[in-house]
Design goal:
By secondary structure, the protein is an alpha/beta fold. The protein has 8 helices and 11 strands. A hairpin with a 2-residue loop joins strand 3 and strand 4. The longest helix has 18 residues.
Length: about 280
């Protein structure tokens, strides 16, 4: 009979593990808080390495307190040396030194299924990333990520031009791939109109257009964090990238619709992350 000891971990059941490397949102709607809610709702075991603390609510960001790079590294080492992970979501990285720590951890631990949400601007319009960090983000993390998930504003900042029409998505995706990304999901929710169009593009030329009817709501805080976390969860659950994106999009549409008329705070409220909770998945 095989011995069920720590020396034979392959034989032991475990949860699907997803690590969020991101900032904390004191208001609970975005960042680490949204990530953990999403991971729990989709049946995964969520873990965190916090990059920054923010004082914020539904009306905006009041201040940001960056975590020292050495402490971020200690968080990553503590989690990955013991628990490990099946997928990673990366969110707010406010400084070049923080980007460098994350890139080194990806290499050191051969982290799988890295989903990079290049968080640059909050729903309230507050800038969350220093200019000097953008080039480091592109150089160090684009080639290491399985997918990047910019919204139109973030894609525009990365490319140095405004994106205001749906017919610009294809060229923008190609240009982001040319910067080193393996796959790009450009989110078109900021475009006007009753239809929301997102475009998934991969370096091998594959394209997947995802469209849905716009859900009118004042509760859009944390949508980007939630979607990227949901994609990471689906990848951890062994979905291929197109399927992971499609399933994650279905989840977030339900989260938006089920919380569309709820009032939390006086500004941009959160989604209903727990609208359809799944049992925690056990894998081997």
């Amino acid at each position: 009979m095989a011995s069920l000891t720590p020396s034979s971990p392959v034989s032991l059941p475990r949860y699907a593990r997803v690590l969020s490397i991101a900032g904390s949102d004191s208001g609970g709607g975005a960042g680490i808080q949204a990530d953990l809610k999403t991971m729990s709702a989709l049946g995964c075991f969520g873990m965190t390495a916090i990059t920054a603390l923010t004082a914020q609510n539904t009306q905006g960001v009041r201040s940001i307190h960056g975590v020292p790079p050495v402490f971020l590294q200690e968080q990553l080492d503590a989690v990955l040396e013991d628990i490990g992970c099946d997928a990673v979501k990366i969110g707010m990285l406010h400084a070049p030194e923080i980007v460098a720590v994350v890139a080194a951890a990806i290499d050191r631990y051969a982290l799988p299924h890295v989903v990079l949400d290049p968080v640059m601007v909050a729903t309230s319009g507050d800038r969350l990333i220093a200019e000097a960090t953008v080039a480091e983000l592109v150089r160090e993390l684009f080639p290491r990520a399985a997918l990047i998930t910019p919204n139109l504003d973030e894609a525009g900042l990365l490319l140095g031009r405004s994106l205001v029409h749906a017919d610009q998505l294809e060229q923008a995706a190609q240009d982001l791939l040319a910067l080193g990304a393996q796959a790009v999901l450009i989110k078109g929710g900021h475009l006007p109109g009753d239809e929301v169009v997102d475009l998934l593009a991969t370096a091998d030329g594959a394209r997947l257009r995802l469209a849905s009817t716009r859900i009118h709501t004042h509760n859009g805080h944390g949508t980007g964090c939630t979607l990227s976390s949901a994609i990471a969860c689906q990848l951890a659950l062994a979905q291929p990238l197109p399927g992971a994106v499609s399933l994650a999009r279905q989840y977030i549409l339900g989260a938006i619709e089920s919380g569309a008329d709820v009032h939390t705070g006086q500004g941009h409220g959160p989604l209903n992350h727990g609208w359809n909770p799944q049992k925690q998945v056990i894998v081997r």
